[in-house]
Design a protein that fits this description.
The protein folds into three domains: 36-133, Fumarate Reductase Iron-sulfur Protein, Chain B, domain 2, CATH 1.10.1060; 147-242 and 396-449, 3-Layer(bba) Sandwich (FAD/NAD(P)-binding domain), CATH 3.50.50.60; 246-386, FAD/NAD(P)-binding domain (3-Layer(bba) Sandwich). The chain starts with 12 loop residues before the first strand and ends in a 6-residue tail after the last helix. The protein is of the alpha/beta class. The mean pLDDT is 94. The chain has helices spanning 20-26, 36-43, 53-57, 64-72, 76-86, 90-96, 103-106, 108-113, 119-133, 155-166, 183-186, 197-206, 225-231, 261-270, 290-302, 322-330, 432-449, and strands spanning 13-14, 147-151, 170-175, 211-215, 234-237, 243-244, 258-260, 279-280, 282-286, 306-310, 333-336, 339-347, 350-358, 360-362, 365-367, 372-376, 379-382, 386-387, 400-401, 404-405, 418-420.
Length: 455
């Protein structure tokens, strides 16, 4: 990734497009928290359905009617405990889950009125005070003498470690980055989790004890897979997707300001002063998922004048939810569909534009009628998906398909004593909530395999 600031002219990438006060407003909390009265009024809208469809739609099966009833009864701590029993990362999931396509879409009031109970905001209302207190409400189990190695301190790894601690199984997490949290810390839009919330939640989870985190320890570089299998009773892989896809176009790796969106978001999330981040005046984003939306919206919030997302198929095929697409559009982002990039143009080493060809589907296959168009750009973000970086497994006999690890219902891999979960496994939904469920289920399976009482 090469980002170069230029004065206005043929290429215009620069920091400080907006002053600090404007940036602060732009990156304020996307969904401000509910006050006590607001939460109680919203909670009383719930029908407390028997066999609730919202609970069925939740990947972690949170008892949603129960925790909402507890909020209505002014039992905020009880509501938090109900949530954490199913999802120890309920605070972040309340912020980043696509509730509009999960629990809230299934809400009976959504079907009846088009206005569901705001489950995500109620979940945040319940969990925020407990996380702010910084102490897990769960007791660490009596030590069993068993130990597990966990690769990755993202949602799957943290959830697995916490559940193992309750069972009395010590764990060591090997994390390549200097902070825990995975994509919650490095990969989501800053306006979704303000004030260092990801770090606070990670500290809350780790506070149970019995969990050691070794930062700056990358699998394959600093620790070997075979050593983990030898030294620990169980291994859990929560490595995420370590590699990003490329466009495969000429000069992609040569032109300045052709940037991987994942890398830029990580830089943005760790920046102490957002006004110092260089951003283009004319920004193009290629992709149709959450990362594409996040980088596009944040580019606008940093002061980019023109931001365009280009996706090769129709809007209905975009992985980003309708809510996220509307958020981008109301933030001033243009979304163009049915087009794919064919070449990059530059003045010297600086990007100047992207040439696209129109596309359509023919018998389910993407095709092009031959027409092309050009969008001027001084900054291009690529957000066309990630893939597994499995070289660190040193050729271990683990079944892999499409660059992801194959697991069963208990998150066991084909290699005895090794489990996996989160974005690195086949069939995952690339959601925080799904990764948490993977970690929880893997911990239960590990405990059973090691002869420890069922969690």
């Amino acid at each position: 990734m090469t980002i170069a600031a230029h004065p206005p002219g043929l290429s215009d990438v620069a920091p400080g497009r907006l002053d600090e006060a404007s940036v602060s407003v732009n990156f304020a909390d996307l969904h401000p928290p509910l006050a006590r009265h607001e939460a109680k009024v919203e909670a009383e809208r719930c029908y407390f359905c028997f066999d609730a469809p919202c609970q069925k739609a939740c990947p972690t099966s949170i008892d949603i009617p129960l925790f909402i009833r507890q909020i209505a009864a002014d039992n905020r701590y009880g509501a938090a405990r109900t949530i954490f029993d199913a999802n120890i990362m309920g605070g972040m999931c309340a912020r980043v889950c696509p509730t509009e396509t999960l629990c809230e879409e299934a809400c009976v009031r959504e079907a009846a009125e088009g206005k569901p109970v705001t489950i995500g905001l109620l979940q945040r209302y319940a969990t925020d005070p407990a996380i702010a207190a910084g102490k897990s409400p769960y007791a660490r189990g009596a030590p069993t003498g068993r130990r597990a190695a966990i690769v990755g301190a993202g949602p799957a790894g943290l959830a697995c470690a916490h559940a193992l601690a309750i069972a009395g199984i010590e764990s060591t997490i090997f994390e390549a980055h200097p902070k825990a949290g995975g994509l919650n810390e490095y990969g989501i839009a800053a306006y979704k989790a303000i004030d260092g919330f990801a770090a606070k939640e990670a500290a809350f989870i780790l506070s149970i004890g019995g969990i050691e985190v070794r930062y700056g320890a990358a699998l394959g570089r600093d620790v070997k897979f075979d050593d983990l299998r030898r030294d620990y009773d169980a291994v859990f892989l929560g490595t995420g997707l370590g590699a990003t896809n490329k466009l495969g176009l000429a000069r992609e790796g040569e032109l300045e300001n052709v940037v991987d969106a994942v890398d830029y978001i990580a830089r943005l999330r760790q920046a102490e002063d957002l006004t110092k981040l260089p951003v283009g005046r004319r920004v193009v984003v290629i992709g149709g998922g959450m990362t594409a939306i996040d980088i596009a919206v944040q580019s606008k919030k940093l002061g980019a004048q023109n931001v365009t997302i280009v996706y090769r198929r129709g809007a209905d095929k975009m992985k980003a939810s309708r809510f996220e697409r509307e958020l981008a559009q109301t933030s001033g982002v243009v979304i163009r569909t049915w087009a794919r990039p064919v070449s990059l143009e530059g003045h010297g080493d600086a990007l100047s534009g992207v040439v696209f060809e129109d596309t359509h589907e023919r018998d389910g296959v993407l095709a092009s009628p031959g027409s092309v168009f050009r969008i001027e750009a001084d900054m291009l973000f690529t957000a066309i998906g990630q893939r597994g970086a499995l070289d660190a497994l040193d050729g271990a006999p683990i079944d892999v398909k499409d660059g992801r690890i194959v697991v069963d219902a208990e998150r066991r891999t084909s290699l005895e004593g090794v489990w996996a979960g989160g974005d690195c496994v086949l069939g995952g939904e690339d959601l925080t909530v799904s990764a948490v469920e993977d970690g929880k289920q893997a911990a239960r399976s590990i405990a059973a395999a090691l002869g420890v009482a069922r969690i």
